[in-house]
Amino acid sequence: MPKKGIFIVFEGLDGSGQSTQVKLLEDYFRKKGRKVVVTKEPTLLSRAGRKIRQALDKKIIIGAKKLQELFQKDRGLHIKNDIIPALRQGKIVISDRYFFSSFAFGSASGVSPAWLIEMNKKFLHPDLTLILDVPAKVSVKRIEKRGKPKTLFEKKRKLEKVIKIYRTFPKKFKNVYLVDGRKSIPQVFQSVRKIVRSKLNI
Fold this sequence. Notes:
The protein is of the alpha/beta class. The chain contains nine helices and five strands.
């Protein structure tokens, strides 16, 4: 797809600080006069996305493979309706999660990694993916501080599997980098900004 914009993705365990870093990077680009679109997966704009949200909130039960099929449907619409149009307009798109979440969480749930990659291979590859790396115990502690019910994947044993898988991605996929998410928010953003400047020259 011919595009003028830049596609950046943040990944990591729940509680790793993605939403915070997305906001900081958005502000950083806006101060530079760049047009930015911030988005998130799963969306709530498709039937598949709303069904995913129900499954994550444990309101309905969906098998692991079926859940990933719903992610694929939601992602396809997300890319078509939101991401690609913004990129064609020369905007910077920052997404909180993308297909790497499917690879990590899906694999940790017993779904074949090869099948997950195959079903997502037609989708646009990000220009830069930043994985906020925090241990599962840190993730759980941060989640518990929210005081909200835990979602489907927010269990320490499952999260230990997920972060282990995430840590393999920089060697398997292009333009993927780990960022130490245990540090303070300003320190994490300093690392994010350094990678963005180095890899994207912006």
